[in-house]
Specification:
This protein is mainly α. The protein is built from 24 helices and no strands.
């Protein structure tokens, strides 16, 4: 009975996309105002999911291609030990013909996984073992030895594959960036939209709270139960950012084709103590980051929007979207987003807000381009405190790098502040820029991004809290287009800000001169600030 009730399997990404899309439409679609901006925003959010699925499938296919190559090398090498061959016999019998297909059943994964382990282990040359390996495949699959010796094409070439892994990923990234371009235009036009009718979700606050808490517990349980050492993971890429962010592993929270899961414990490579500690740190930070995002969304709506129900609905929508389920374990996605949201929450105190923006920018570099927008907002009141808070956090992060002897301080600072050549080779890039596009074309995109960042310092002339929300979201979206490490997938950097922009009321009166305490404002006026 316990196995029946506790036999939980993670849903496939496509299943999650369908369920989340139906929930999003049912809970947030404005049926009595079909042609509303809210409905357009929901459609754009839902349209992000197909691109994520295509990139996911492309990376899965890439992993299968790697496993197939390892399998072919192992079958042709003939340098395995007898003990490992005996373990291999127990793992793959019986072995039907279709199991050698790269898209076959679970037994296919077992064959590829076992052979990968055999190929990676130290071995000695033995003709008897070589013959055993060849006879094994011939006896179980019917493939003659000459077919194995003929080359990899006859053994494991994909059959009826419409796209290669690179083509799938290229299509997925192009699709994601296209949808994000539409969202960027929407955020740029948001400051001129003064009419914002109250459009609450189609469920009560209690129902939304129950659904949100259930989803949060469900996703964090996936993080806790995931083991980055026994699954294939696409870890954080080595781009600009803090040294700690580059060291933490990625925690997989979706079912993926893994190389080691299902093998006996004595065959799996034992993770080192340091790897175990980093995995625990990554899990804790991922859980705290998502908790910070959800709590900040609710508090911002309660304190600055005066609508707790909208905040609960906004936080629940963040948890429903397929992206959150797919990237729950990516600390480099969620932690900067949490810091940016808490900067929004504490925007009335520029010193604290500057500290949060400094933390976000110090960890992943790209939020540093928000400084012109935020400095312009505080220009008439609070700019010195904001700059001081940002500088203090950046200084503390740089001081901590002094004690990290994994690399030189100069190298750490170079990565922390993105002092990297934009014309790097495609081998050092990830995502779209590594899939056939010439890195040279990153230069005009970077120049356009810098101009956009500077443009927000002067437009709009009078900035308010709504401008900070939409402008920050726009800059984090625009960063995806020149992000050299899988740009387009870092949706968490702008998703919470985008959701708050969608749900926000009219905030034209939330300007720095009214909400930030100045030197001439007496302490007794605190009540007046809280009512603004």
């Amino acid at each position: 009975m316990g196995e029946i009730l506790l036999n939980y399997e993670r849903p496939q990404p496509a299943t999650w996309v369908y369920l989340s899309s139906f929930l999003t439409i049912g809970l947030y679609f404005v049926f009595h105002r079909f042609w509303s901006i809210r409905n357009l925003d929901l459609v754009l959010l839902i349209l992000l999911a197909p691109g994520l699925l295509v990139v996911y499938e492309g990376r899965q296919l890439e992993q299968e291609e790697r496993a197939n190559r390892s399998q072919q090398i192992a079958l042709q090498s003939g340098t395995q030990t007898k003990s490992l061959v005996e373990k291999f016999l127990t793992l793959v019998q019986p072995l039907p013909m279709y199991a050698l297909s790269p898209r076959g059943s679970v037994q296919s994964e077992s064959v590829a996984n076992s052979l990968t382990v055999l190929q990676k282990t130290p071995s000695f040359v033995s003709e008897e073992v070589s013959g055993t390996t060849t006879e094994l495949v011939e006896a179980n699959s019917g493939i003659p030895p000459e077919a194995i010796e003929g080359g990899p094409a006859e053994l494991d070439s994909p059959v009826d594959e419409d796209f290669t892994s690179d083509e799938l990923q290229r299509i997925g990234f192009l699709y994601l960036l296209t949808i994000q371009a539409f969202i960027l235009v929407r955020m740029m036009l948001d400051p001129i939209m003064s009419r914002r009718p109250l459009l609450d979700p189609n469920l009560t606050a209690g129902g939304l709270m129950f659904l949100g808490v259930s989803l949060f517990v469900f996703m964090m349980a996936n993080v806790v139960r995931s083991d980055p050492q026994t699954q294939y993971t696409q870890g954080p890429e080595l781009g600009p950012g803090y040294a700690l962010m580059r060291m933490l592993p990625s925690i997989p929270t979706l079912p993926i084709n893994n190389q080691l899961e299902g093998l006996p414990a004595d065959i799996r490579p034992e993770p080192t103590a340091g790897e175990k500690q980093l995995a625990v740190v990554a899990k804790v930070l991922a859980i705290l980051a998502h908790l910070g995002i959800v709590s900040a969304i609710i508090l911002i709506s309660n304190r600055h929007f005066g609508n707790t129900r909208a905040g609960v609905g906004c936080a629940t929508l963040y948890l429903i979207l397929p992206y959150t389920a797919q990237m729950t374990g990516r600390v480099d996605h969620a932690l900067p987003a949490a810091f940016l949201l808490w900067a929004i929450l504490t925007y009335r105190r520029p010193l604290i807000a500057g500290m949060f923006v400094g933390l976000a920018g110090g960890l992943v570099y790209y939020p540093l381009f928000l400084l012109p927008l935020w400095i312009s907002f505080y220009w008439k009141r609070g700019v010195r405190k904001f700059i001081l808070g940002t500088a203090c956090m950046l200084a503390l992060l740089m001081l901590a790098l002094w004690f990290d002897d994994s690399s030189t301080l100069a190298d750490h600072l170079q990565h922390m502040y993105g002092v990297l050549s934009p014309l790097r080779d495609a081998e050092t890039l990830q995502g779209l820029w590594a899939l056939g596009w010439n890195p040279f074309w990153r230069l005009p995109v970077i120049v356009a991004y810098v101009i956009l960042s500077a443009f927000f310092a002067i437009w709009p002339a009078q900035k308010n809290l709504g401008t900070i929300l939409s402008g920050s979201a726009a800059l984090m979206i625009a960063a995806q287009f020149w992000h050299g490490e899988s740009g387009g997938l870092y949706i968490a950097w702008f998703l919470p800000l985008l959701l708050l922009t969608i749900f926000r009321p009219n905030l034209q009166d939330r300007i720095a001169t009214k909400v930030v305490a100045g030197p001439n404002l007496v302490r007794g006026s605190k009540t007046e600030l809280e009512t603004v």
